[in-house]
Amino acid sequence: MKTIINSLIVMLLLAGCTSLDEEVYSDLSPNNFYVSEADADAAVIAIYNGLNRRPFHDTYFTSLTFMPAPHSASRLPNRRMFANYSFDASNFQIIEPYWSAVYDMINRANTAIDRIPDIDMDETLKKRLIAEAKWLRAYNYFNLVRLFGDVPLYLKETTSLEDVNQPRAPMSEVYAAIIEDLKEADENLPPNRTDDKKGRVTRGTARFLLAKVYLTMAGEPMNDGSGLEEARTLLVSLYENKGAYGYDLLDNYADIFKLDNELNAEIVFAVQQSRAVGGQGTGMAHIWGPLRSPFGGTGQYHGGCTQEFYQSYDSTDVRRDVTWLERYTARGTNQVFVFGSGNGPYGDPRNGMAQAKYQDPEMNFVDGETDIIIYRFSDVILMLAEIENELNGPNATAFDYLNEVRERAHAGTYDQQAAATPEEFRELIYKERFWEFSFEFHEVFDIRRMGKLKEAIETGFETKLFGTSYDPKYELYPIPLSEIQTNPNIAGHQNPGW
């Protein structure tokens, strides 16, 4: 059940219940809205709604995170530019709207965090809602700092023009704020949710993200491994007490993504979608599906993975054909298209093999029902494998974690001869994360933190076609030109090289 979306609909209906024939003595504003428990809950739901808006993941986030993978390919210039690095700071299709959308969510979170304490309501629920808003703020800053580096740090509601233009805060300061928010979320969020609140963040979600933050900080460019021990403790807690948190590794990889199995035990966090309300669904199946797609919209076929990457999976690995569509029957016909066959656009390997994780044959044009999966329990296990290697080298425990994920995928398992050094084990993890989490918004983050961007550019399908050479500036995206031009406190402080 789409509990967050349904709650949002109720909130909007209540907000609009004013007769046009009546004299209006008060309008909804921050000063008169935050007066009840229901208002507090609605304010937090509004933060989730910022993530739910259809273009956020379908166009902005997918371009920024998936396209930089060395195995990405696209038939569209506005996607391809994020694979071959031909964009610049003036990009108004992806970079600028993404930046604006994230800061809008952050301000919604700040408003809730600042206003909810003054509401006369149950104190436990109050702390829970504030913690929920802080998790959502931390999640958004975590994406910003990884994508852009030093960014303006807003931790209070924007109420005047003086609040608007903040300078760029150092990455270390942004990470410190993220960690503080997530620790408070850990203390005050519930361990799990009842059915009517399912999908909202929990203590497990907070511990997961805090561990991921520490692991990310241990890599490039921070190189701060001081949090790795704490990260392992958090992840071991989730792993050994998965039942208490409501998590598990599903037996069948394909079941994770089924439309009738949303918010299953493997989901740590997902953004709920709905085709029932216009603008509250996802266009992932339509935008990233093949032309005349059998599973969503009409299929715009913006791109996907290379044939080489598809063939890099073990032949027995079930993740390959759950993730990528090698062949399909065009909707309404008996015509079968085979990728790379030379038969039409789908037969041209230049265009990329379409994803298959998002399927909703009944979607209303671009409003699909399939939830946007952000984090999964298998990531707990792979992070444990990676951290064990970083702390103790490629020992039996690290391989056990890695092989648990591969066994579920029916891929061949590794013995300890597969990696004799931490560097060799890191390479196994790097490849495994591509196979396990393809098209789930992890690619660029793993490439950067693991110091693989130069390699990704030198070996990338699109970068080789375009002739892109590695430049250190590509380690971060440029701050949007619109922000540089309108914020006097960061004018002249663009990321180096941009």
Automatic annotation (TrEMBL):
Gene3D superfamilies: 1.25.40.390. The keyword Signal applies. Its main location: membrane. InterPro entries: SusD-like_N, SusD_RagB_dom, TPR-like_helical_dom_sf. Residues 75-215 form the SusD-like N-terminal domain. Residues 300-498 form the RagB/SusD domain. Keywords: Cell outer membrane, Membrane, Signal. It holds the Pfam family SusD_RagB. It comes from the Bacteria. It is found in: Cell outer membrane. GO terms for cellular component: cell outer membrane. Belongs to the SusD family. This is RagB/SusD family nutrient uptake outer membrane protein. It comes from Sinomicrobium weinanense. The lineage of its organism: Bacteria, Pseudomonadati, Bacteroidota, Flavobacteriia, Flavobacteriales.
